[in-house]
Amino acid sequence: MRVTVDDIMELRPICYGREEVKEMFRGAESATPMEIARAKHVRVADRLWVLLRPESIPEHDLRLLECDFAECLLPIWEAQHPGDMQPRDAIATKRRWLMGDATDEELAAATTAATAAAWEGWAPARAAERAEERARQLARVVDVLEEIEALSDPI
Fold first, then answer.
1. How far apart (Å, rounded) are the C-alpha atoms in residues 25 and 5?
2. pLDDT tens-digit profile of 46-93?
3. Backbone φ and ψ of 29, nearest 5°
4. Rounded distance between C-alpha atoms, residue 8 and residue 19, angstroms
5. How crowded is residue 114: how many other Cβ atoms within 10 Å of its Cβ?
6. What is this structure's pTM?
7. What DSSP designation does 12 have?
8. Phi, psi dihedral angles at 78 (to 5 degrees)
9. Residue 87 contacts by C-beta under 8 Å, 6 or more apart in sequence?
10. How far is the C-alpha of 108 from the C-alpha of 93, rounded, in Å?
């Protein structure tokens, strides 16, 4: 399957306009997703964006790949949340669902549980990030006030 600039634009690339997409093709009328994926002048993220789509790879395979990617992150989650198997269970349920061995209801329940665990687990980290950002902003305000005071000092 070959794609054109128009095909890519129909996919609604977020970071690019028509001219940037045309640059990916370097004057060619069309290219295969694999040709774009091998194009060294195109950013890696953009190459993957073109390649990892149902237009390039069967939907079922993409969903299995999502499970593979998610499983790669499980050690990070499990190190911070020992004993919390909800994300692992959700991935396993998704795999079973893709093979026809789990119901839509089982998938929805596993996904809901894993999502709730993720939000609960990441809430403290997000709060700490917000507090750190506020502290940086406050420090900058103090710096600016000190600069203003130094400028107004008659010495």
1. 8
2. 888 888 888 888 999 999 998 999 999 889 888 888 898 989 999 999
3. -70, -35
4. 12
5. 22
6. 0.63
7. -
8. -70, -25
9. 70, 74, 77, 114, 117, 118
10. 9
Residue 39 structure tokens: 């194009």
Q: Which pair of tokens denotes residue 12?
A: 């609604």
Query: Helix 59-80 vs helix 104-152: angle between axes, to the nearest 10 degrees?
Result: 60
Q: Where are the domains of the chain?
A: 5-51, 59-124
| Straight-line distance from the first to the last Cα atom of the chain, in angstroms, rounded to the nearest whole number | 75
User: In whole angstroms, what is the distance from residue 123 CA to residue 135 CA?
Assistant: 18
Structure tokens at 124: 């403290």
Bridge partners of 31, per DSSP, are 3
> How many residues can be counted in the chain?
155
Give tens-digit pLDDT for 3-30.
888 888 888 887 778 888 888 888 888 9
